[in-house]
Design goal:
The chain contains 14 helices and 7 strands. It has helices at residues 70-83, 105-114, 129-142, 147-159, 165-172, 176-183, 190-198, 203-209, 215-228, 232-240, 250-257, 260-274, 296-306, 308-318, and strands at 47-53, 57-58, 89-95, 98-103, 118-124, 278-282, 287-291. It holds the Pfam family ParB_C.
Length: 319
């Protein structure tokens, strides 16, 4: 049985195209109904988004490229495994539930290597690339994407739909430097990209990490950002002082390895008891317990479970 695609981390251009049947191009100006900016992306004439079984897709017989670097495909497969496929392939329907690949053969082949059963795709009926490009750019301006989705959308518009940096900057109301800096997020290691996509580190953190040239150092510092709650300014200072490039001392690593199983067990028990996520960390000189809460009511519930007397006192003060 094929592996299911990793979900929940965004779809790049797929987030800009409504799922559904192809929308015909209006025959007269003004025939498209009013569409509020808060209603999401506009229907795209001549294209729609669909999850397609990989076995239903055949390669384009007119594709001139016959040789694909196996190592590069393996790296792309690793990235898809970590982050998901943020750039959907582009296909056309040939009838009978079958599709022919138009763009994205490397993505299609890498997904096959992973054993994925379905792949996100833009199903295209029009041959007018400019029409699709302009509609997608318009939707990119309207839809709120996370930083990695935005970067993937920019990259696919540049590579698959022939957009230019200048067109993107003008149409989405961003500077060319913003476009370039956002695209650079795709150069981060896959597991760091996954943190950005999941929102555990911000785009500002990610841009600060890009000043490091060592992927291992980027990964270590990304883990510190999440574990220690570092601000973007703190990350910039760590990078500028060269602290991020130094690997942890072997003795420190051994010292941290011993208590880790016990701490993980304790954190799991506390999480079950308080019905929320609890982290227990032990540093060189001190430790800390971090208890997460979702709302003020949730916080009140947790404090009541930890210290009922203190919770009653706080309620009395509020009254």
């Amino acid at each position: 049985m094929g592996q299911q695609r990793r979900g929940g981390l965004g779809k790049g251009l797929g987030a800009l195209i409504p799922t559904g049947p192809i929308i015909d191009v209006p025959s007269a100006p003004g025939s498209v109904p009013e569409h509020s900016p808060d209603e999401g992306p506009r229907p795209v004439a001549g294209a729609y988004f669909l999850e397609i079984p990989i076995e239903s897709i055949t390669r384009n017989p007119r594709q001139p490229r016959e040789v694909f670097d196996e190592d590069a495909l393996g790296e792309l497969a690793d990235s898809i495994r970590e982050v998901g496929l943020l750039q959907p392939i582009v296909v056309r329907s040939v009838g009978g539930g079958r599709y022919e690949l138009i763009m994205g053969e490397r993505r299609w082949r890498a997904s096959q290597l992973l054993g994925l059963s379905e792949i996100p795709a833009i199903v295209r009926s029009t041959q007018d690339d400019a029409l699709l490009r302009d509609a997608l750019i318009e939707n990119l301006q309207r839809e709120q994407l996370n930083a990695l989705e935005e970067a993937a959308a920019y990259r696919q518009l540049l590579d698959d739909f022939g957009a230019t940096h200048e067109q993107l900057a003008q149409r989405v109301g961003r500077s060319r430097s913003h476009i370039s800096n956002t695209l650079r997020l795709l150069n981060l290691p896959s597991n760091v990209q996954r943190r950005v996509a999941a929102g555990t580190i911000s785009a500002g953190h990610a841009r600060a990490l890009l000043t490091l040239t060592d992927p291992a150092a980027q990964e270590r510092l990304a883990a510190r950002i999440f574990a220690e709650g570092l601000s973007v300014r703190s990350v910039e200072e760590i990078v500028s002082m060269g602290e991020a490039t130094a690997a942890p001392a072997p003795r420190n690593r051994r010292a941290k390895e011993a208590p880790e199983p016990a701490l993980a067990h304790l954190a799991h028990r506390l999480s079950d008891h308080f019905e929320t996520r609890v982290k227990v960390d032990l540093g060189r000189h001190k430790g800390r317990i971090v208890v997460e809460f979702a709302t003020m009511d949730d916080l009140d519930r947790i404090i009541g479970a930890m210290a009922p007397g203190a919770a009653n006192s706080l309620r009395a003060l509020d009254d």
